[in-house]
Amino acid sequence: MAAHDDCSDRGARSFPERRTDRGAAPGLCATRPKRRSQCRSPCSSLAVLVHGLTMRVALLSWDFPPEPTGLGRAASEIAHGLAGHGAEVTVFSADRSGTEETAFGRMIGCAPAKTGLPAFLRKRAAIGHLVAPAAFASAFRRAHRQTPFDVIEATNWYAPAAFLTGGSVPLLVRNSTPAADAFEAQPSPRNRIDNWYAHRLERQTARRSDALISNTRPHRQTIVDLYGLPPDDPNHRVVGLSLADDLIAEGARSKPAPDAAALLFIGRAERRKGFDALMAAMPLANRKRAERGEPPLTLHLVGLSDDEWQRVRDDLPEDTAKHIVWHGRADDRTIRRLLGSVAAVVAPSRYESYGIVYREAAAFGRPLIACREDPSARAFLAAVPCGVLAERCDDTALADAIVTALDPARQADFREAGIDHAATLTREALGAATLAIYRSMLEDGA
């Protein structure tokens, strides 16, 4: 994968087999140097802890709503959850420029320059991955000089905080899907180097952070294995994401739609998302329904760009294409409308980190059709029996799961389990859990 272009989880862990030079390029060093307790001013972390001063948080994200991406929606939940507990949150987002005041605090755009040296370097293998992290670091440091921060939080994905490790402000990395999961199976020599560096950058940023958060226990294990982290690190916590409070309420009010003869898929046209299996499964599922005298299913697609959809559409047989409705990169309002109108949500991912779509299906009481290949899906549906797991991520198994999930005799149980679970996924709970980890980081550095 080329350098990131589309902007579209305490303690000083030590790895003695490597030495660190803080001046080395990100991704080429491992051990985080001992932290100095200097956030707002000397002993400021104690002031936050003892005197109850407002926690000032810098949250780094590649994008933010209204961009309909998982990373952006996760950042929104984190920001609102923290603000609900009185934290002052500044989001640094690479999908925009300028500064604005928001309901949760402040938004600072830090999109890399589109001309000059940054634009030139951005297209180069390996080194291009440093352009956006440099822009994040520059924007953060300017804001930090004006209003000092207590904590930095950033996603692991393509390491936006690569230049902010080992400094005076503690860093928490909240893990999403690692970049390695999107690498092609047989990359060109150029892309092989590019992929190696992107993974190295993520790995070393995580290893030099002060704390990590993963979303589920299977996700935590994946991150431990991929980044070579200590498996028993007490500062690598598991905290699931929330849903917007009004979405939870809207989902609970939504009426069941067992006769809608429609499914919803949210995501990109990626193998990781099981999109290939879904396209192959739809004709089989509709053939099974025809044999039972049931109408064909319409599949609503959300999240595919114009170019993705055109490539998909060109490869589809007409009999399949006529039952698909493409909504592009739809906004939150459209996604909620679709969640309330379909009979089920199909999310046959081979691997998920946040698993936001699993939670959204549960919130609206829609049966979830997921895939056993994803450890997070297995854990989710074992805990919340609100859907069906396809035994394999292929056309036959997925078609069988779709037919099973739409069985009218199971709809009420799926709905009750999902809505009951969604009621626990509050921003208040996410904010409280995250702030507890921040305070633990500050105690370590005090």
Provide an overview of this structure.
α13 links the parallel β13 and β14. α2 crosses α16, α8 crosses α14 and α12 crosses α15. 41% of the residues lie in helices and 13% in strands. It is globular, with a radius of gyration of 22 Å. The strands form two sheets. The chain has an eight-stranded mixed sheet with strand order 3-4-2-1-5-6-7-8, with helices on both faces. The protein has a six-stranded parallel sheet with strand order 11-10-9-12-13-14, sandwiched between helices. The two termini are 40 Å apart. It contains 16 helices and 14 strands. The protein is of the alpha/beta class and 446 residues long. The N terminus is likely disordered. The protein folds into two domains: 218 residues, Glycogen Phosphorylase B (Rossmann fold, 3-Layer(aba) Sandwich), CATH 3.40.50.2000; 178 residues, Glycogen Phosphorylase B (Rossmann fold, 3-Layer(aba) Sandwich), CATH 3.40.50.2000.
Secondary-structure map with pairings?
Elements: H1 44-51, E1 56-61, H2 70-83, E2 88-93, E3 99-101, E4 105-109, H3 116-122, H4 131-146, E5 151-155, E6 171-174, H5 189-207, E7 211-214, H6 217-227, E8 236-238, H7 245-253, E9 262-266, H8 275-291, E10 298-302, H9 306-315, H10 318-321, E11 324-326, H11 332-339, E12 344-346, H12 356-363, E13 368-371, H13 375-383, E14 387-390, H14 395-405, H15 408-422, H16 427-445
Parallel strand pairs: 1-2, 1-5, 2-4, 5-6, 6-7, 7-8, 9-10, 9-12, 10-11, 12-13, 13-14
Antiparallel strand pairs: 3-4
Helix pairs in contact: 2-16, 8-14, 12-15
